[in-house]
Amino acid sequence: MNLVELTLAWLADPGHWTGAPGIPNRLLEHLLLSGGALALAGSIAVPIGIYVGHTGRGVGLAANVANIGRALPSLAVIAIVLPLTSAIDNQAGFRLYPTLVAMVVLALPPILVNTQTGIGEVDRDLVEAARAMGMRSGDVVRRVELPLAATAIASGLRSAAVQVVATATLGAIFGGGGLGRYLVEGIAQRNDGMTYGGVVLVAVLALAVEAAFVLGERLIRSPGLVRIESSRAASAA
To answer: Of 139, 154, 138, 120, nearest to 233 (Cα)?
Structure first.
């Protein structure tokens, strides 16, 4: 059998779709890890990006932090934090937390940069018009800047999500779950069907995540809140 046939045969085997090591369970583990990392990164990067973009303060620092985050290899981040997390928890601290931290570090730069850029590039005339209407700083952010920057923020989240989904496979090297288990175990067992089956599953998941975010961005671009808020601000100019 050639490589394609081996991969298809492995994917089609009903035994690989049930139980703890089955594809549905590994997929769920992968999604939970990736989703958790994305949520943590978003909760950190979005508020900082909004503050920097809105005030114009700390732009250089934010750019430097983002550049450092891009430069750090995920495997190196795992290796750096692993001794600390394993000392705190010798189970999850070895298998889960290092990978989670590495994925958060990976996701931070695109979310931070896109949020800060999206907020910062909102037409200043609209912002001043909103302030002239009596809006406070928080209202300007919530009712004008965020709706107009929503597409840019969503694009940053999409980029981060795809990178995290593709890179979270590294956690399997340290005994973590997810689809990376098929790559690690397939290589260890010299099972090409399992190895490339895992590759296909990760690729399909990454494409599915990309498609979901693209759809979300299209919905954001549809006429609605952005047009209403920008029209209100423009009418006061």
So the answer is: 139
Six token digits for residue 172: 């399997």
For 3-235, which CATH superfamily applies?
MetI-like (1.10.3720.10)
Q: Of the candidates 153, 152, 166, 154, which has an alpha carbon nearest to the alpha carbon of residue 34? A: 166
Judged on CB neighbours under 10 Å (0-12, 13-18, 19+), 190 is exposed
Angle of helix 180-189 relative to helix 23-55, nearest 10 degrees, comes to 130
CA atoms within 13 A on the CB side of 212: 10
Helix (H) or strand (E) holding 227: helix 225-235
Could you report the per-residue pLDDT of 20-31, keeping only the tens digit for each?
899 999 999 999
222: DSSP letter: S
pLDDT in tens, 188-201: 999 999 999 999 99
C-alpha 146/C-alpha 68 separation (Å) is: 26
The answer to whether the CB of 189 falls within 8 A of the CB of 233 is no
Tell me the domain boundaries of the chain. 3-235
Whether pLDDT at 206 is above 80: yes
pTM of the model: 0.88
**Gyration radius of the chain's alpha carbons:** 22
